[in-house]
């Protein structure tokens, strides 16, 4: 335990079990209405927490250096699973999107698995210090992003792009690449957002959100009502009105709005500070690693975690258009929680072997 990063571990455990409480708080009404069991979502989340903590425990003890030799099979499996979602009978289509594979016990979302898989592969590749890899890097990343966009899931595609760019930057790439790549990625993202009607509607709603609440989409309007109702100190735990089926996705993407309503500005800032601690410890662990593979792997993991946190919180505070990105460790969902907790286990293993 002397070498375990207790700050990171305790912060992640706090967020995970706080999330479990908030899922019960936010879902009890709709769970009873839809399933006749107010504990429906909580039971699922407890099962996923057990699997996620098992993954955290395993990877915190599994020497991360062994992942170096497993990088190629891991990325092949991740891409293969990403392709399987498009095969009828294997992939599951929900709400107009093909993002899941039915494993009977739960639905697996391969795009979540791609995030740590890409971090492992790029860390192994970039630690070789080879030159002239920019085009190969772009081909791999855009191939993966293309599959994710086809699901469609533009938000996750953006997180993967951010993760890949951070890792390429950490590997010592020339700054000129980013001067070219960032605006190109932004333009492509804008075009893709405009091509799909529902994305275009979200973008329009975001651009109009500051003008008049009546011109906002229903979802954004309910988020703003929740944030405004919370005020400085909140309406109190369990006293949210938005959880009574007013706020869409109130246990997944929009759970932070319920937190802000019940805990207010002060409670929301506290939760954000805990996330800041997680990100800070993650980059501290990466920078303290004794080898380049550990530095890049830790940097890639904390990059996709930080990207998810930033995008979700920015969307919930109407600083970005709404996306389908869950809030790490807190939102309801199996694949994301299991992958995120397992990724934290890798970070803890890097910390155990580093100079912290």
**Strand/helix succession:** HHHHEEEHHHHHHHHH
* Overall shape: globular
Number of strands: 3
Mean pLDDT: 85
Q: What does the radius of gyration come to?
A: 20 Å
Query: How far apart, in Å, are the first and last alpha carbons?
Result: 12 Å
Q: Strand sequence of the main sheet, in spatial order?
A: 1-2-3
Strand fraction band? Answer: under 5%
Structural notes for this entry:
The protein is mainly alpha-helical. The chain has one domain (6-353). It has helices at residues 6-35, 40-61, 66-69, 71-84, 110-126, 134-150, 154-170, 175-195, 197-208, 218-230, 255-288, 292-316, 334-353; strands at residues 91-94, 97-102, 107-108. The radius of gyration is 20 Å and the shape is globular. The model has no long low-confidence stretch (mean pLDDT 85).
Task: Give keywords.
single chain; mainly alpha; 3 strands; globular
Layout of helices and strands:
Blueprint: H1 6-35, H2 40-61, H3 66-69, H4 71-84, E1 91-94, E2 97-102, E3 107-108, H5 110-126, H6 134-150, H7 154-170, H8 175-195, H9 197-208, H10 218-230, H11 255-288, H12 292-316, H13 334-353
Antiparallel strand pairs: 1-2, 2-3
Can you describe this structure in just a few lines?
This protein has 356 residues and is mostly helical. It has helices at 6-35, 40-61, 66-69, 71-84, 110-126, 134-150, 154-170, 175-195, 197-208, 218-230, 255-288, 292-316, 334-353, and strands at 91-94, 97-102, 107-108. It has one domain.
């Amino acid at each position: 335990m002397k070498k375990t990063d207790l700050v990171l571990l305790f912060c992640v455990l706090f967020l995970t079990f706080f999330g479990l409480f908030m899922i019960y708080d936010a879902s009890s009404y709709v769970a009873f209405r839809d399933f006749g069991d107010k504990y429906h979502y909580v039971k699922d989340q407890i099962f996923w927490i057990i699997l996620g903590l098992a993954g955290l425990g395993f990877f915190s003890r599994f020497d991360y250096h062994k992942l170096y030799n497993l990088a190629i099979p891991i990325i092949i499996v991740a891409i293969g699973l990403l392709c399987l979602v498009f095969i009828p009978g294997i992939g599951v289509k929900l709400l107009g999107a093909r993002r899941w594979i039915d494993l009977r016990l739960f639905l697996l979302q391969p795009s979540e698995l791609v995030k740590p898989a890409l971090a492992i592969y790029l860390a192994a590749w970039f630690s070789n210090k080879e030159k002239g890899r920019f085009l190969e890097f772009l081909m791999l990343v855009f191939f993966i992003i293309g599959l994710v966009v086809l699901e469609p899931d533009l938000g996750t595609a953006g997180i993967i792009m951010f993760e890949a760019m951070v890792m390429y930057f950490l590997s010592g790439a020339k700054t000129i690449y980013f001067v070219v790549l960032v605006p190109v990625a932004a333009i492509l993202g804008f075009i893709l957002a405009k091509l799909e009607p529902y994305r275009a509607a979200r973008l329009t709603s975001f651009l109009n959100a500051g003008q008049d609440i009546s011109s906002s989409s229903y979802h954004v309007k309910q988020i703003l009502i929740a944030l405004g109702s919370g005020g400085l100190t909140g309406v109190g735990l369990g006293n949210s009105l938005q959880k009574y089926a007013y706020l869409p996705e109130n246990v997944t993407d929009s759970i932070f709005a319920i937190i802000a309503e019940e805990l207010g500005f002060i409670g929301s800032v506290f939760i954000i500070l805990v996330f800041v601690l997680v990100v800070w410890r993650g980059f501290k662990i990466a920078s303290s690693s004794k080898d380049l593979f550990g530095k890049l792997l830790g940097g890639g993991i904390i990059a996709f975690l930080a990207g998810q946190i930033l995008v979700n919180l920015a969307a919930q505070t109407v600083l970005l258009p709404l996306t389908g990105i869950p809030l790490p460790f807190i939102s309801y969902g199996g694949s994301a929680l299991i992958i995120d907790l397992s990724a934290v286990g890798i970070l803890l293993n890097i910390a155990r072997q580093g100079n912290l």
